[in-house]
Amino acid sequence: MPSNAGDGGQAVENAWQLEPGPADQAFAMQEFGTFDKPWALSFVPGTDILMMTLRGGTLIGIDTATGRQISVSGVPRVDFGGQGGLGDVAFLPSESGDTIDGRTIYLSYAEAGNGDTRGAAAGRGTLSCTEPSSCTIKDFEVFWRQPKVGGRGHYSHRFAFSPDGEYLFISSGDRQKMDPAQDTSNNLGTVVRLLPDGTPAPGNPLADGAGDPAIWSWGHRNLLGLAFDASGQLWDIEHGPKGGDELNRVEPGKNYGWPVVSNGVHYNGGAIPDHATRPEFAAPAVSWNPVIAPGDMLFYSGKMFPQLKGHLLVPGLSIESLVDIDMAGTAPHEAARYGFDRRLRAIEEGPDGAIWIAEDKDGARLWKLTPRTAG
């Protein structure tokens, strides 16, 4: 039987994996429309407005109290193709109120470079909403970029604000180039820590000039989930190669080993040393083989589902399921899987504790999950 607990800080090489049960037997499910290629969800703080990015380059607001859709113009031009396009969306935690007009909005996206190159970029602007169903982004400025390279994979570009709102973390994938993830002179395969204005945060591990001053950790692959738990610990969830998806505690100055180590293998079958063979690299808290292909992650508050308080909820792409990970005890372990029969891309918690999930690809449904009522 596979284990769900590590030994001496080493990786769990094959997490205990559960068979999914039907999601509609665990949750009351309400559909809020269909959309093409959703990628990220984020509620505007203090409101019922859910913002959703579509990878083709569209940003949509949804008033979840009424179902009214809000169009948003002024989105930067994206390089759409492969895994690239419009990425994450976030808002300053310190800004609140019952209106979205005047809010600072953060977007990440794939940006074209010279020739056949591209890289992730992140910027911020101000929402201007003169009509109930129409907004525009004004004064959008880019503050962070990846190096421009060939290919259209592994941008990552997920946002996470620290609980105190003082820092913005961004995941930066290896762009399928592998070796740059071990070179701290660039930001590929890293997590970066910035101030809310986009400048590198003081006190970062390489702020003394030994590398990119924005880097917080490195040796990552493709980090599609980035979130803080209730204790203030930052975690990421990332795709392994063929096998070896990882859940990591993200610590400053640590090297997570990619591509030197992995609990998976190369797509051509070539071997990669396991984490256990190189203790100088930070090992994942859990790894999966077969993979779950995570699309996003959410630490749940427990507001509407008390039994899920503190659990990590991970929408899975290839497994077409929502994975419920119990974080209590000596090591994280799967508590349940809920099958949707569609690839799942993004997850967010509403102000009331409802769970919102967006499916992947064209015709993807947006779901609101609430508790089932007896009878």
Structure in a nutshell:
This protein has 375 residues and is mainly β.
Walk me through what this model shows.
This protein is mainly β and 375 residues long. The chain has a single domain (21-370), classed as 6 Propeller (Neuraminidase), CATH 2.120.10.30. The protein contains one helix and 25 strands. The chain has one helix at residues 23-26, and strands at residues 21-22, 28-35, 38-43, 49-54, 58-63, 69-73, 86-91, 104-112, 118-131, 134-145, 156-161, 168-172, 190-194, 215-218, 222-228, 234-239, 245-249, 286-288, 298-299, 312-315, 321-326, 333-339, 344-349, 355-359, 364-370. It has an eight-stranded mixed sheet with strand order 3-4-5-6-10-9-8-7, with no helix packed on it. Strands 1-22-21-20-19 form a five-stranded mixed sheet. Strand 5 (58-63) and strand 6 form a beta hairpin. It is globular.
- Summarize the amount of helix as a percent range: under 10%
| Average of pLDDT | 94
**Into which percentage range does the β-strand content fall?**
35-45%
Q: Which H/E pattern describes the elements? A: EHEEEEEEEEEEEEEEEEEEEEEEEE
- Any idea what the CATH superfamily is called? TolB, C-terminal domain
DSSP helical segment count = 1
Radius of gyration: 20 Å
